[in-house]
Amino acid sequence: PPSAAANLCPGAEQKVVFITARVHPGETPSSFVCQGIIDFLVSQHPIAKVLRDHLVFKIAPMLNPDGVYLGNYRCSLMGFDLNRHWANPSPWAHPTLHGVKQLIIEMYNNPKINLEFYIDIHAHSTMMNGFMYGNIFEDEERFQRQAVFPKLLCQNAEDFSYSSTSFNRDAVKAGTGRRFLGGLLNDTSYCYTLEVSFYSYVLGGPNSAVPYTEEAYMKLGRNVARTFLDYYRLNSLVERPLAPTAKTR
After folding, report:
1. Considering only the top CATH level, what class is 14-239?
2. Catalytically annotated residue among 13, 195, 214, 239
3. Mean pLDDT lowest for which of 21-25, 116-120, 134-138?
């Protein structure tokens, strides 16, 4: 239908969600979570159709392809931890960051585009579950608005932990995508790092750790995508299949 691509027409107002992954090559779960997001968004699922009609998703699934190819754990071919170079990326030494940053600044300067979310996907080697890092703002209202998305995600994903989600301005993290873009973009943009455990998530008590599988990582990705439906209150637009009739015993 013509309405399906209305938000992609030239000059149309766009709400953009920008997602990046695998800036640290050893954090393979990041790629599976991102794969889950992509597979869901391009599917025929009724929720995916509504999301495509209302939002524009821009996804850079691998920010460190040379590091991944070489089997590096954290650095690029030239030995850089790319996630510390967002402030001033070099087109020669950090080309992927430079390209993504230029695109984000271009969108930021376009009055027809609202860059609403930036989410950078990582994997964590010591914590359990999925969780997020956000930024700290002096503005109390902005700080509270930033907590909305992780709270909604917590309701959609059994492996996502809001209690492990934290908001910080640690100096060590100053060159990260989340911190740098959180300072660059305006107060209607939300920048997060989405972390997911390398090994397991906890359901119920402390001794009930469930090992992550590739499918479980992709499911977290699907749940991240679905959470935008709740965030933008688009639930009423989803075509519901007819409810099956209850079977009588």
Report:
1. alpha beta
2. 195
3. 134-138
